[in-house]
Design goal:
Shape: elongated
Helix content: under 10%
Oligomer: single chain
Distance between the termini: 31 Å
Strand content: over 45%
Order of helices and strands: HEEEEEEHEEEEE
Largest sheet: 8 strands, antiparallel, barrel
Mean pLDDT: 84
Number of strands: 11
């Protein structure tokens, strides 16, 4: 994510999201001052999969951390830098694309003990609200659906910066994190350890390292 610059490239034009001649507000609905660079990012974006990671981490046997990621997903993002509450996001993940670096473990995860990918091939996140907490920090609430169960989650979202890359793409970087209890979505499989505790933690940390590309308008 180090390619991002917190300074907006001078070659990137401000998006007119609120009508011709209408200035962007200096503050959001909560009165928090808005960075002009953030306001200029208003528009449609798509996650660039080769430079992003939709991942998770979970404690294993109480002493180590297993990390994994999903390689196959679709994204629809609209970021409103002038009115963050109008921002929205949808992420549709094919759970069979999970990769933890161990084939046997991946096969177990997509089986009936965990994701049950045959019956529930997709995991979906849809945002419901976004609050600007100040500077480059946001709090996004949304509905997460796993195994047909939908529950609300809250993500801490941080804007990392934007850049016009050598190929002419306008990129923006975001990090988002949250921790969930997997049993709330029916992922209850576990094994108990002889010394006490569980083989797999019920707490799972979700980590989204996002490089987004501004979507070009359709001619």
């Amino acid at each position: 994510m180090g390619i991002f610059s917190r300074r907006q490239s001078a070659t990137i034009e401000q998006t007119q999201a609120v009508g011709p001649g209408t200035p962007f507000p200096a503050t959001d609905a909560t009165g928090v001052a808005l960075d002009p660079a953030l306001r200029a990012l208003t528009g449609q974006w798509t996650i660039d999969r080769p430079h992003s990671r939709i991942g998770f981490s979970v404690r294993h046997a109480m002493v180590t951390t297993v990390r994994g990621a999903f390689a196959d997903y679709d994204s629809t993002l609209y970021f409103d830098g002038a009115r963050p509450s109008q921002s929205r996001a949808e992420l549709v993940i094919r759970v069979a694309s999970v990769d933890t670096g161990v084939e046997q473990r991946d096969a177990h995860l997509i089986g009936t003990d965990f994701f049950d990918a045959h019956r529930y091939p997709e995991m979906v996140f849809r945002s419901t609200s976004t609050i600007h907490e100040g500077a480059e920090s946001f709090r996004t609430t949304g509905d997460l659906t796993i195994r047909g169960i939908t529950r609300p989650v809250e993500l801490q979202l941080d804007y990392l910066g934007s850049v016009l890359d050598p190929f002419g793409y306008e990129r923006a970087g975001f990090d988002a994190t949250t921790t969930i209890d997997r049993t709330d979505w029916g992922l209850v499989y576990n094994q108990r350890l002889e010394a006490g505790g569980a083989m797999v933690s019920e707490k799972v940390r979700l980590q989204f390292d996002i490089s987004a590309i501004r979507s070009m308008p359709v001619a």
